[in-house]
Amino acid sequence: MAKPKIRHLAILARNPKKMADYYTKVFDMEVIHKNPQGTAFFLSDGYITMAVLPHKLETDGSVGLNHFGFHVDDVAAIAQKIAEFEIEEPKKRPADRPFAEFRACDTEGNCFDLSEHGFEHAETHAERDAKKAKEKALV
Q1: What is the CATH number of the domain that holds 44?
Q2: pLDDT of 118
Q3: Is 101 helix (H, G, I), strand (E, B) or coil?
Q4: What is the pLDDT of residues 111-139, one digit of tens each?
Q5: Considering only Cβ atoms within 10 Å of each terminal Cβ, which end of the chain, N or C, has fewer?
Q6: Which residue range(s) make up the domain with 81?
Q7: CA–CA separation, 40 vs 89, rounded Å?
């Protein structure tokens, strides 16, 4: 199995569009996806993706780093390693999330995403399932 790589960071912002504009102008990052409401922006430098998410005072903690994500070959294998620390197993992300399939946490409760799909392209669970079905049909 390849070594898992951090490929995704998420930042909570009071003004996600302004922050996304900043990163695209200052660091030449590219907007690779935004949610239909235009309130969350997913940027890339070609290697790592950064989600700039709207901060919701009633539900979120402080602004800033919210979570990061690992691109892994096998979520089940990672889940077994997490279980050795007696930490809650990774949970499946909502079906409409375009990047990570699972969410987990470390020993201090810092959240991170786990994705076999990766963070380079927006793709929902339904799109991933359709792609897998097509690949199986070709075999």
Answers
A1: 3.10.180.10
A2: 77
A3: coil
A4: 888 888 877 777 777 777 787 778 778 87
A5: C
A6: 5-138
A7: 27
Query: Can you tell me the distance from the alpha carbon of 61 to that of 57, in angstroms, rounded to the nearest whole number?
Result: 7
Q: What is the 3-state secondary structure (H, E, C) of 28-85?
A: CCEEEEECCCCCCEEEECCCCEEEEEECCCCCCCCCEEEEEEEECCCHHHHHHHHHCC
Please give the pLDDT value at position 123. 74
pLDDT the model gives residue 75: 92
Residues 78/72, Cβ–Cβ less than 8 Å: yes
Neighbouring C-beta atoms of residue 29, cutoff 10 Å: 21
Which one has a higher pLDDT value, 86 or 59?
86
Q: Is the pTM here over 0.85, yes or no? A: no
Domains held by the chain: number = 1
What is the rounded average pLDDT of the residues 85-91?
Answer: 91
Q: Are 71 and 119 in contact (CB under 8 A)?
A: yes
Residue-wise burial string across 44-74, b where 16 or more C-beta atoms lie within 10 A, e elsewhere: beeebbbbbbbbeeeeeeeeeebbbbbbbee
Q: Which of 136, 118, 139, 106 is nearest to 73 (CA)?
A: 118
